[in-house]
Amino acid sequence: MELTWIWIPISVFAALMQAVRTAAQKTLNQRMSTMGTTYVRSLFGMPTLIVFLAAAILYTGHGIPEYNPVFLLHTSIAALTQVLATALLIHMFRLKNFVVGTMLTKTDIIMTALIGTALFSEQLTQLGWVALVVVVCGTILMLAGKMGTAAFRESGETLSGLLAGRPTQVALMCALLFSLSYLFLREGTRDLGEQHHFLWRAGWTVVLATGLQTVCLGIWLAVKEPAVFKQMWPMRGIASFIGLTSALGSIGWYSAFALQNASYVRAVGQIEAVFTLAISWLYFREKVTALELVGIVVTVAGVLLFRLV
Q1: Which of 87, 280, 283, 295 has the largest CB neighbor count within 10 A?
Q2: DSSP-derived secondary structure for 183-200
Q3: CA–CA gap between residue 73 and residue 216 (Å, rounded)
Q4: Is the pLDDT of residue 187 over 70?
């Protein structure tokens, strides 16, 4: 397989693992707080990430990277913005009339492309922009089909009122923070030197970023929700599964970021919505609407376009 497009199946694999992890988190979240469930994926995923880093070191022959303050800065910012974005996402779901906000979080792909082109190392082709927009449209169609027009009618607000509401503002800030996290992660993998193997660069970046998130969120939970730590051991089975799938997904994302533009990787990663619908249909027995099926076709078409970029 040519290394020039190996990032596509890697991104698809990462999206699949993320969809499986999210489904498992949905089950765990019924017995544990949202922040506790979020913490589980980092804490229980660290052993797998460390094993991956060790394997990457053995495979590539590269050891510990030289002290690189730029790498540390970029990766730390990426870890912090990802935690803040996740917290905002959780907050948004608690707000009334979050339907439009949920859809607007998908603008993170467009933001990543625009900000990345202007301020970072992103270089997009014309076909790349087309594929990116097609994927976003497909994702929004799937979300619209999932939520239905009834969700808008029940809000009792006009479309303009929804767009100007707090959920929309939170969603846009959430999308911005996620975009910055992707871009800084991409820069972090590049800071280690693109002459080095992408798996080695991905290994060090994912271990540092996830390690920082584990420590920071662990401190927050120790202060705000100490009971979470007592809940983990009885739920170690599903927690370990969440940690494993989360780690495999992170390995995929970071490896893809080490090879390709962050906006391209995240656009291909939107196929996660297709996997999520499949899991909802097969496991949770939820119905799939006609609009969702149209969204699936459009999203897959957009992903396939990236093979031509």
Answers
A1: 295
A2: HHHHHHHHHT-TTS-HHH
A3: 16
A4: yes
Q: What is the pLDDT of residues 14-38, one digit of tens each?
A: 999 988 888 888 788 788 887 888 8
Q: What are the structure tokens assigned to 36, written together?
A: 């506790």
| Encoded tokens for 60 | 């590539």
Give domain limits for the chain. Answer: 10-308
Q: Quote the DSSP letter at residue 107.
A: G
Give the integer Cα–Cα distance in Å for 204 and 226.
30
Which residue from 267, 225, 43, 14 is spatially nearest to 138, judged by alpha carbons?
267
Overall pTM surpassing 0.85 (yes/no): yes
Q: Phi, psi (5° rounding) for residue 238?
A: -70, -30
Cβ neighbours, 10 Å, residue 236: 12
Q: Residue 63 class from Cβ within 10 Å (0-12 exposed, 13-18 middle, 19+ buried)? A: exposed
SS3 for 286?
coil
Cα-Cα-Cα-Cα dihedral sign, residues 209, 211, 212, 217 = positive
Instruction: Please tell me the distance from the alpha carbon of residue 65 to that of residue 204, in angstroms, as a whole number.
Output: 8
CB 108, CB 178: distance < 8 Å = yes
Q: Which long-range contacts (CB under 8 A, 24 or more apart) does 227-232 make?
A: 228/32, 228/33, 228/35, 228/36, 228/39, 231/31, 231/32, 231/36, 232/36, 232/40, 232/43
Is the separation of the CB atoms in 253 and 209 below 8 Å? no
